[in-house]
Design a protein that fits this description.
Shape: elongated
Number of helices: 5
CATH architecture of the domain at 14-115: Alpha-Beta Complex
Radius of gyration: 58 Å
CATH superfamily of the domain at 14-115: Ribosomal protein L17
Distance between the termini: 167 Å
Number of strands: 3
Mean pLDDT: 80
CATH class of the domain at 14-115: Alpha Beta
Strand order of the largest sheet: 1-3-2
CATH topology of the domain at 14-115: 50s Ribosomal Protein L17, Chain: A
Helix content: 25-40%
C-alpha cells in the first residue's frame, strides 16, 4: 500500500523519474520559466525550493549538495551568486505555478513553472547604422572630337613581314657499313700436299 506517498511515478522507474525532475529544475534555473504538465510542475517546484535554500547558505557543503542534484558547476555558481541573493527576504515560496488549458490530444492539464524573482536582463545595445552620405552626381566630360585627316596625310601601313620558314633539318645520313674484308683463301689441305709428293716419285721412276 502507498499510504502517505506524495510523489508520483509518471510511468517511469526511479532513476528515470529522478532525472526527469532534475532536468525540469535545471531548465527552470536557466530560463526562469518553463511550460510542462501540472503534476510535473508541482514535483519540480519542490526541488527548486530545496536548491534555492541551499544556494542561500553559501557554504561548501551546500554547494556540493546542489552539485549532486544539478551536475553542472557553472549552474551551481550562478545559483549561489545570482539567483539566491534575489530571495534574501523570503523564507519560502520561491516558485509560482500558473495553470493553463488542457493539452490538445490527451487532455493533460498544462502549467507554467516560473521563479517569483527573475534576473534583469540587460538590453542589448543597438547597432548604429551609419547613414551613407549622398554622393554628388559625377559630371561626364565629353572628349573633343578629332577632325578627320585628309587622305594624303594618311600613310599606308606597311604590310606585315612574313616570317621565313625555317629549313627543315636533313635526316642524318646512315653510316656506311664497312666493306667486307677480302676473302681469305683457304689453305690447301694437308692431304693434297702429301698426294703431290707421291705423284712426283712415280713420275721419276718411269723416266
Amino acid at each position: 500500500m502507498r499510504h502517505g506517498k506524495l510523489n508520483k511515478r509518471f510511468g517511469r522507474n526511479k532513476s528515470a523519474r529522478k532525472e526527469l525532475i532534475r532536468s525540469l529544475a535545471r531548465n527552470a534555473l536557466i530560463y526562469s520559466r518553463i511550460k510542462t504538465t501540472l503534476p510535473k510542475a508541482k514535483e519540480a517546484s519542490r526541488l527548486l525550493d530545496k536548491l534555492i535554500s541551499l544556494g542561500k547558505k553559501e557554504t561548501l557543503q551546500a554547494r556540493r549538495a546542489a552539485f549532486d542534484m544539478l551536475q553542472d558547476r557553472s549552474l551551481v555558481s550562478r545559483l549561489v551568486k545570482d539567483i539566491a541573493p534575489l530571495f534574501k527576504d523570503r523564507n519560502g515560496g520561491y516558485t509560482r505555478i500558473i495553470q493553463l488549458n488542457s493539452r490538445h490530444g490527451d487532455g493533460t492539464q498544462m502549467a507554467i513553472l516560473e521563479l517569483v524573482e527573475k534576473l534583469k536582463e540587460e538590453p542589448k545595445p543597438k547597432k548604429k547604422v551609419k547613414a551613407k552620405a549622398k554622393e554628388a552626381p559625377k559630371k561626364v566630360v565629353e572628349a573633343p572630337r578629332e577632325e578627320p585627316k585628309p587622305i594624303e596625310e594618311i600613310k599606308e601601313k606597311p604590310a606585315p613581314k612574313k616570317l621565313k620558314a625555317k629549313p627543315k633539318a636533313k635526316p642524318p645520313k646512315a653510316k656506311e657499313e664497312p666493306q667486307e674484308a677480302e676473302k681469305v683463301k683457304p689453305k690447301p689441305e694437308k692431304k693434297k700436299e702429301w698426294f703431290n709428293r707421291i705423284k712426283g716419285i712415280f713420275k721419276r721412276k718411269k723416266d
